[in-house]
Amino acid sequence: MDYTEHNNGELRRLHPKAKQATALTALMVNGLLTLLAIAYLIVAWVKEWVQWPGWMGVGLFIISLIWYTWILPGLRYRHFSFRVAEDELEIHSGWLWQTDTIVPMTRVQQVELESGPLLRKYGLAKVSIVTAAATLHIAGLEREEAEQLKRNIGHLAKVEDHDE
Predict the structure, then answer these.
(1) Tell me, which fold does domain 3-13+84-156 have in CATH?
(2) How far is CA 131 from CA 3, 41, 102, in A?
(3) Any stretches that span the bilayer, and where are they (predicted)?
């Protein structure tokens, strides 16, 4: 089944699990940074160093943790959509700074499928569309849907698939 026929040219959203994968990534990064700031505070207390940089770090990383773990994943999910048509790929993203991108299929040079450890944990993958001007990403699709999207964009753009 052709991906464009399956979706009738409608705007599509990412899989809801994409919110969880994004939140888990943010939790790991910001949690580590918060722990490093706490470690600095402990060393600063023992060695009688200045403590205010550690307290600023802890405060900023906790705010960052809340923003990137609980707020931003939902905003990204709600404000990201894409559409594949026979002659173009359209991507809408952004909450404050909204971006609407249309890429003619004739400009697509390469289509890649990636799935790192966190995306694999949730059964998700990322499709990267490479043009001469930019690389666009659609991260957070179910693995099977991502594979279908990659094949169909490659077919529509007449890009050779080396996996087959």
Answers:
(1) PH-domain like (2.30.29)
(2) 20, 47, 12
(3) 21-46, 52-73
